């Protein structure tokens, strides 16, 4: 009952799957109220019911992060239900690897829209309320591709590098109101992320990431626990950046 997250009001994007889903569950189990944002409404309702029946408080907010109006409406609903949003976890993202000369430029557009614009829109929507209340924490889920360069990841890495720049500047802008900002850069994690990728391209990429003996991936709970740790740092501490990868990953 003494959890530092008790009553904290959290909005998680990408909460229908993977890292966002695990993060919402972990934070709720530590007493946070969680608003769940993604497109698949039935998944969100299922998770909200699970959290509510475990004694927590969750709100399903079906929305597409590539539409600013939908993001703003979701934030307004969370604010009305909880009285405010103290924490934003931007986890919505897609990864569609491919060589520059062969990739479908429409895939680039989708990655920029979800990974970069979606995270920027959500930050834009929660920030005025956080600044007004003088407290808040924004966690942007980037990737080790936000630091490392490898073939076939040009567009994905570009979105994550851009998210890194956005996050660093966000931190500078919110410094006067003492809000906290964290950039999390996970490596290979078991989730649905790779299911949307070209499986042939992906197989070659995975083979090149470890030493060839099969890599032990991180679980979504591993990553959720890094988010929990960032959020529960003492209030005078800002966890600025975390690079977080499987031991097996190069
Ligand atoms: P998943 O595919 O399991 O989850 C992605 C989430 O994003 C889903 O909940 C999906 O929900 C949501 N999403 C996708 N498009 C939209 C959209 N237009 N509007 C709203 N929500 C959307 O992947 P992960 O959990 O692995 O990925 C989460 C984040 O972690 C991503 O930013 C990814 O880049 C990053 N990451 C993941 C790594 C990994 O190895 N798994 C490694 C490094 C970083 P829905 O489809 O219902 O909208």
UniProtKB/TrEMBL annotation:
Give the InterPro entries listed for this entry.
Answer: KR_dom, NAD(P)-bd_dom_sf, Sc_DH/Rdtase_CS, SDR_fam
**What name is this protein filed under?**
NADP-dependent 3-hydroxy acid dehydrogenase YdfG
Q: Which residues cross the membrane?
A: none
Q: Tell me the SMART domains matching this sequence.
A: PKS_KR
Q: Name one Pfam family in it.
A: adh_short
Q: Give the keywords, sorted.
A: Oxidoreductase
What family does this chain come from, according to its entry?
Belongs to the short-chain dehydrogenases/reductases (SDR) family.
Give all residue intervals belonging to the Ketoreductase domain: 8-187
